Amino acid sequence: MTPPVPGAPTPTVLADPYAAGPVPTTGDRSRTALHRSLFGLPLRPRLAVMCVVTALAAFAVFCLGLALGDYPVPLVDVVPALWRSGARGTVFVVHEVRLPRALTGVLVGAAFAASGAVLQAITRNPLASPDMVGINAGATTAVVAGIVLGFGDTLGTPTLGLAGGLLGALAVYLLAWRRGSTGFRIVLVGIGVSWMCTSATDYLLTRAKMHQAQEAVGWLVGNLNGRGWESVRPLGVAVAVLLPAALLLAGWNRNLQLGDDVARGLGTPVQLARGLLLLVSVALVSFATAAAGPVLFVSLAAPQIAQRLARLSAPPVLLSALTGVLLVSGSDLLARRLLPDTDLPVGVVTGAIGAGFLLRLLVRSNRAGSGG
């Protein structure tokens, strides 16, 4: 081994956000470790195994949701019915009555969770989520304004949700800009914008007629009841485009976890990367909010659960999306079966689960000395 040269600079050690220990910047080994990835995600056996296990669990819950209801369907007949094979009555119930709602839950869970994973990564804050930084609130205000003021039928809920989410995110980004933007300022400004949008939504509800208020309130909780193919199609196209985009940008996302200065040293255009990642996150959550309302805490809890399942120090986007699917599908199944003759909104269940998870995160942050 060559002895160290006196006066030579000491090699810097960088903390890989997807690794358990530090990675030295010198040598081929460190460069290989940093770049050995698929779509910017580390190729780790545990991550791959957890993705497969979570996907299988989500598919099992998905099939169980299609089987249970006022007209029970044998579980073994569910998969054939998805391909329009089997008894005509079974195919009709599974494919036409229950499948649109179930698919909406799958897409909403994936969109909210992937959006939360991206946002938590670019802000480097486990408590950051679209629920808290004005994106959900902007989309919600736009949709409620369309319902109350009467232009919702003309523009359509997906258009209003996307426009509201983009405007809310743009307001956050511009207000947080000071020769660039940082995750800390985005979170702080986002909380303020969120409360402003919430106040605007409350004001609109006070001006609404009775039937408009009932429609808006039923949507505000986060609801999959009565969802049809008209909700599935635009959301399906959005997820099919935006989720691969989030995976392709995961390399930049990973570098941003190391801090802005280190990310620049690795060749990442920091402001462009943060802007594009924020745009993908906003679009995902806006389409999901337009389809099912602001389903609470999925975008906060699912990435953190996925991070702990994979034992990584940053939320992996793909596993987060699969965890979101499992969380929303399971919560919807529980909401349908929790009370007899009552179909609860899915947001009631995810809110109860997510609130407890948020309290646990806050307690852990305070114990670690990072809380207030």
Described by strand count, sense and barrel closure, the largest sheet is: 2 strands, antiparallel
String of helices and strands: EEHEEHHHHHHHHHHHHHHH
Share in β-strands: under 5%
Average pLDDT for all residues: 80
Description of the molecule:
The chain has 372 residues and is mostly helical. The chain has helices at residues 28-35, 45-67, 78-82, 88-123, 135-149, 152-155, 157-176, 183-207, 210-220, 229-248, 250-256, 260-265, 270-292, 298-310, 317-337, 346-367, and strands spanning 13-15, 22-24, 37-38, 41-42. A two-stranded antiparallel ribbon has the order 1-2. A two-stranded antiparallel sheet has the order 3-4. Helix 14 packs across helix 15. The longest helix has 36 residues, at 88-123. The radius of gyration is 22 Å and the shape is globular.
Write the layout of secondary structure elements.
Elements: E1 13-15, E2 22-24, H1 28-35, E3 37-38, E4 41-42, H2 45-67, H3 78-82, H4 88-123, H5 135-149, H6 152-155, H7 157-176, H8 183-207, H9 210-220, H10 229-248, H11 250-256, H12 260-265, H13 270-292, H14 298-310, H15 317-337, H16 346-367
Antiparallel strand pairs: 1-2, 3-4
Helix pairs in contact: 2-4, 2-15, 4-10, 4-13, 4-14, 4-15, 5-7, 5-8, 5-9, 5-13, 7-8, 7-13, 10-13, 14-15, 15-16
